[in-house]
Amino acid sequence: MLATLFAALARRTGAAFVALAALAVVAWPNAAHAQGLIRDAEIENTLRVYTDPLLVAAGLNPEDVDIYIVNDPSVNAFVSNGQNIFVHTGLILAADNPNEIIGVLAHETGHIAGGHLARSREAMGQAMGPMLISIGLGVLAIAAGAPQAGAALIAGSQQFAMSNFVRHTQVQESAADQAGAQYLEATGQSGRGLITFFNTNIRPYEFMTRRAPPYLMTHPYSSDRVEALRQRVEGAEHVGATDSDENLRRFRFMQAKLIGFIQNEGQTLARYPTRDTSQPARYARAVAYYRVSDLTRARTELDSLIAEDPANPYFQELMGQILFENGRAEESIPYHRRSLELAPNQPLLQTNLARALTAARGRDGSDEAVDLLQRVVAREPNNAFAWRELAQARDLRGEQGLAELASAEQNFALGDYASALNFAERARRSLPRNTPSYQRANDIVTFASNEVRERANQRGGR
Q1: Between these two residues, 296 and 4, which has the higher pLDDT value?
Q2: Cα(194)–Cα(103) distance, integer angstroms
Q3: Rounded to 5 degrees, what are φ and ψ at 381?
Q4: pTM value?
Q5: Distances (CA, A) of 427 to 57, 393, 403, 419
Q6: How many angstroms separate the Cα of 96 from the Cα of each of 7, 85, 91, 253, 285?
Q7: pLDDT digits (tens, 9 = 90+) for 6-51
Q8: Rounded CA gap, 173 and 32, in Å?
Q9: How high is the pLDDT of residue 174?
Q10: What is the β-pairing status of strands 77-80 and 37-38?
């Protein structure tokens, strides 16, 4: 389910999170990158199923690559901060079939395999040299009595640097296109999806980009990219390959869930009217009804889905979420437990069950909750929401020092170093010395103190 109150990720991707109900939308500090991130076990699993074969074909280890869902209506995907792929919800909803999404994922895999992020940083540094030289010449020209020439040199320096840099990025984009086509062919999939996606969602806007100055064009013209891809794809052995039934099923449910959560009830019912009795349509309507607190209709749709497919962990999860968020925590536990039985070791599902246990049973549920949450944070050490739930569960067990350490971890993951420092110092006073927990609190104190001090110095220097 689109994770309830789930906040995670953190320092290694530079993201900070603010948890909201139902659809976990998390704040991203760089507004240029995204409006927020979404955690959802089902959609993450689908994107992982689509991506992993491509990563293997590229010679990469899938476990080293993280995939994130960006809550943004624009049609986009990008690689950032190492081996992290970010996929916009707008791209998922704009796609007509799985092959189009997989084609984009293949392109992003090409960026990772090609080491393009590191090379872009090098290219940017190289572009700065000529820019600084141009500025220096401009200053000298002004000093020599030629102010107009000097001003022209200085004004054109940034354009000169940018033109050098965009030539580099255009080459990278073309290389990622060709690499993506190679990975699709290696995995027995057609590259036509990437071509049709460009044609439908990017090429119609090419007339706008052609009006832009050439030195601002970080990507090649989409028509050139399409034609270059077409030459390679049309001659490939698997050009006629079609999406598997399983990939199609996943695609339809992924779109239905996103529409139910992101769009309003009217928009969802327009896309999935009540006369549509398909499973994805009922799934979308169940989510839409739940979001407007129409518990009766939400449960009716979902009960029919569970009756048809009781082994679907995400139907069970959504029912648990609906019940939990309508004040029926105890009633939600069997559904959360069943979802975890059907999809073992899934961190989001483990967190859901732990939260329901502590909410419904207090101290009696805290032992199992602590065990579940320890497994979550061992796998996702930057999962701030899981740390928060662990702090509450440990507090119920009367473990003050460990509860404060978990709160320190939560704030550390969020980048709130002042609060992390405060909780870690309090944890140190309660925890036995010469234990791993005490040492971890000590590490947080050391690092957070440095961060707080550095930020204070930066503010003072402004």
Answers
A1: 296
A2: 5
A3: -65, -15
A4: 0.79
A5: 47, 16, 8, 12
A6: 30, 21, 10, 13, 20
A7: 333 333 333 322 222 223 333 333 333 335 889 999 999 999 999 9
A8: 20
A9: 78
A10: unpaired
Q: Are 43 and 6 in contact (CB under 8 A)?
A: no
Rounded to whole angstroms, what are the CA distances from 213 to 120, 159, 166, 208, 414?
20, 10, 11, 11, 40
Alpha helices in 292-383 (DSSP H): 295-308, 313-324, 329-342, 347-361, 363-379
What does the pLDDT read at residue 200? 81
* Token pair in block for residue 357: 């246990």
**What is the architecture, at CATH level 2, of domain 311-397?**
Alpha Horseshoe (1.25)
Tokens, residue 160 = 């000169």
Residues 53, 57, 61, 66, Cα dihedral to 10°? -50
pLDDT at 251: 98
Residue with tokens 């420092």: 421
Q: Residue 459 corresponds to which tokens in the numbers above?
A: 């503010």
From edge to edge, which strands make up the β-sheet containing 66-70? 25-26, 37-38, 66-70, 84-88, 77-80
Residue 7 phi, psi dihedral angles, 5° rounding: -120, 130
Give ranges for CATH 1.25.40.10 in the chain: 311-397
